[in-house]
Amino acid sequence: MYENLMKNWLIVLAGVLQATFAVLNLLMRDPDSVLLRRFITENPSLFQAQLALAAGLCTIAAGIWRPGRSKSWLLGVNGLALAVYGLVPAIWADRPLSFRPLFALLLVVMATTIGILVLADARTVRGVREWFLGLAGTAAIGFAVAFLALDLRWIPIGQPGSFFLLLGSFFASSAICLIAVAVLLNGPRLSSPVVATAF
After folding, report:
1. H or E stretch covering 192
2. What is the rounded distance in angstroms from the CA atom of residue 131 to the CA atom of residue 125?
3. CB distance 4 to 183 below 8 Å
4. Looking at the predicted structure, is the pLDDT value of residue 194 above 70?
5. Measured between alpha carbons, how far is 40 from 63 in angstroms, rounded to an integer?
6. Which of 50, 56, 161, 173 has its Cβ near the most Cβ atoms within 10 Å?
């Protein structure tokens, strides 16, 4: 497992950055919290955008240098959407930005790509690893449906606190997916021509 983590260190780093981004979103539920003011001296929204950009760039790099896998483009698209998610508020920090449609669609792309990636990887292993990756991928697809429903106004955006809870939950799930891919895809794999040709 240690060797696999070393081979996939970029994916692990991307997962850690997304986990940090998830914690920051959870802290944003209360912008006046002591934790937020103590650890983030600058504008929390700007720091959030910078962290998303860093996580996105790291995920793109992980997609480019993912050793021995044929579905790296899914990581690249995921990272690109996350980098844009962070870049837009960083560039237009002085303007009010709406969640719909840009940010909602970027979240749909992120959730869909990580879900497909994890579900495809789940088909190449067996046992508990297959079940765990399958559940993680299904959860990511569920988040994609939720963000699409928010974008189409099928679900109203509630209080900012509940919205940050949704974002924090999604990025925590995405971090788990990335780290699970890095940790669980070790040992002998099944040869799956369907997966290889589909992606």
Report:
1. none
2. 9
3. yes
4. no
5. 30
6. 56
Map residue 32 onto helix, strand or coil.
Answer: coil
Measured from the Cβ of residue 93, the count of other Cβ atoms closer than 10 Å reads 12
Distance CA(195)–CA(120), nearest Å, equals 6
Q: Is the pLDDT of residue 196 over 80?
A: no
SS3 of 138, please?
helix
28-42, 107-121, 122-136: segment of lowest average pLDDT: 28-42
- Kindly write down the DSSP assignment for every residue of 57-112, as one continuous string: HHHHHHHHT-TT-S-HHHHHHHHHHHHHHHHHHHHTTTS---IIIIIHHHHHHHHH
How many domains in the chain?
1
Alpha helices per DSSP H over the chain: 2-7, 9-27, 34-39, 44-64, 72-91, 104-122, 128-151, 160-184, 193-198
Residue type, 164: F
The C-alpha atoms of residue 117 and residue 113 are separated, in whole angstroms, by: 6
Read off the pLDDT of residues 9-44 as tens digits, 9 standing for 90 and up. 888 898 999 999 898 888 877 766 666 656 665 667
The per-residue pLDDT of the chain, averaged, comes to 79
Token digits of residue 124: 């190449």
Domain boundaries, position 109: 2-198
Candidates 117, 91, 138, 127; CA nearest to 182 is 117
Confidence check: pLDDT of 68 > 70: no
